[in-house]
Amino acid sequence: MEGISTKEQLVIAGRSFQSRLLLGTGKFGSYLQMSQALEASGCQIVTVSLRRVEIGENKRKEDILSFIDTEKYLVVVNTSGAMDAEEAVRIAKIAAYGGLPKWIKLEIHPDPRYLLPDPVETLKATQLLVKDDFVVLPYINADPVIAKRLEEAGAAAVMPLGSPIGSMRGIETKAQIEIIIEQANVPVIVDAGIGKPSHAAMAMEMGADGVLINTAIAIANDPCKMAKAFKMAIEAGRMAFEFGTDEISRLAVPTSPIESFL
């Protein structure tokens, strides 16, 4: 994949990915537009809702999966719409039965207004799915305690929100995410609320392992160009994190000290 060279690849559940950008597939104007944005983004992990996937003998030609090259992209079904652990586990098992990978982006948000994740049901579902050999990527509030509990339960990564889903308000939970990153032994992927490439770059500079974007790309005037902008921002942010920056100083520090001329 073309892009900026960085030291390490993203590794989730023992599988390596060159791209640290994950893409959601909702809200695009068409499946063709979505497919073109995926290509422009350089991503390798794509999340889809089971509600948009046709399983069984009655598949339509315009099924979303016919626009996603499963040899090129890892398709991860999300459980969006699940109200509790039982429903989320059922969605995951239906997806696996339909031949999709046993990788699940676990979303349980019963509150329809704010779509905030239910930590109790998310932990319960993670425990059940891990026992059934699923690779579980839980979407969570930026809560370091639940992040650690999910890691201990066998989650392959944790996905704290930057701000509410689709709000595009950016990273309003910076302090909490920094604690999650500090404590985590699994990848931390910032998910939800990221509205600009600068937000994504900020997440990567903080030390996040990846970022999942959907709305900001899908509703852009030119989704392909926006996808490319996010790709570049994530690469730049990761490079800044890997190679480091100087500590912030309260005082001004001259770039050309006068002593050098004396």
TrEMBL record:
Active site: 105 (schiff-base intermediate with dxp)
UniProt keyword list: Cytoplasm, Schiff base, Thiamine biosynthesis, Transferase
Pathway membership: Cofactor biosynthesis; thiamine diphosphate biosynthesis
Gene Ontology cellular component annotations, sorted alphabetically: cytoplasm
Biological-process GO terms, alphabetical: thiamine diphosphate biosynthetic process
Family: Belongs to the ThiG family.
Entry protein name: Thiazole synthase
Source organism: Methylacidiphilum caldifontis
